[in-house]
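Researcher: Structure for this, please.
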Amino acid sequence: MSKKMTLSIDPDLHKQLEQRFQDDEHGLNQFIIDAIKNQLKASSPSPEKEDNLESYLQKGSSGSRTYGVKGQGW
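Model: Predicted structure, C-alpha cell format:
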C-alpha cells in the first residue's frame, strides 16, 4: 500500500524535473522513488560488513593473551 507525501523543492530543481518529465507524472514519481531508495541504500550500514566483523572477532582463540590479537591485549 502506497502513501502520499508532499515535498517542497528548490525552484531550479523543479524546473529541471519539469523539463525532463514534462507531463509524465508516473515517470516523475518512479524517478523520485528510485532516487530515495538508492540514497537510503547507500547511507545505511551494510549487514555484510557487520557479519564480517563479527565472524573475524569470533575466529580468535578464546583466552589468548597475545598483545594485539583481535584488538585486545593487556
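Researcher: Any notable elements?
Model: The helical segments are 11-21, 25-43, 47-59. The two ends are 55 Å apart (CA to CA).
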